[in-house]
Specification:
The protein is built from two helices and ten strands, in the order αβββαβββββββ. With about 170 residues, it is mainly beta.
């Protein structure tokens, strides 16, 4: 790949047609505003969609839905970027995630913790119907932790995401 390949921006106009599914319009996910946890239920646009445990399990299912018949040598990747992982209103946690996505919706990347100077591989998938992108650690440690966001959120400079620390 050419120099700075992984650092280039990824706008929705190029991104929506990258997938084999050819989405015309993004589905936005704004955690804390349009996606809200209330009374052990998850609401999207004020509509109750699942219990908190069901919503977590949906994210786990997305991470496990990687197609089995993929020839890894022929997978094409689009870099999504490097993202800081912080709590709302925090300035810096020293945690970052670098992500790329394949035309089939497979997510791969690396989580890096600057404070401990450790990196870990991440893997996941994009759900075709909901455009939810979910990934987890690929090294088998902290298996209950799943991070998710809308795939279109990853085309923005600043966005929200949700980290599940288990059911």
């Amino acid at each position: 790949y050419p120099g700075n390949w992984c650092w280039r921006p990824c706008p929705w106009a190029a991104f929506g047609t990258w997938f084999v599914w050819q989405w015309a319009q993004p589905i936005p996910y704004n955690y804390g505003t349009t996606v809200v946890y209330r009374d052990n239920y998850v609401y999207i646009e004020e509509k109750q969609v699942a219990t908190t445990e069901e919503y977590y399990q949906q994210a786990v299912t997305v991470t496990q839905s990687t197609p089995a018949d993929i020839d890894e040598s022929k997978v094409e990747w689009m870099p999504l970027g490097v993202f800081a992982v912080t709590e709302e209103d925090a300035t810096d946690t020293g945690m970052m995630v670098q992500l790329a996505v394949s035309k089939e919706g497979i997510i791969a990347g690396t989580f890096y913790n600057e404070i401990t100077d450790t990196s870990r591989p991440v893997e996941g998938m994009v759900d075709r119907e909901t455009q939810r992108a979910a990934w987890k650690f690929a090294d088998g440690k902290n298996a209950d932790i799943v991070m998710e966001t809308g795939i279109s959120n990853l085309t923005k400079d600043d966005s929200t995401a949700l980290i599940h620390f288990g059911p």
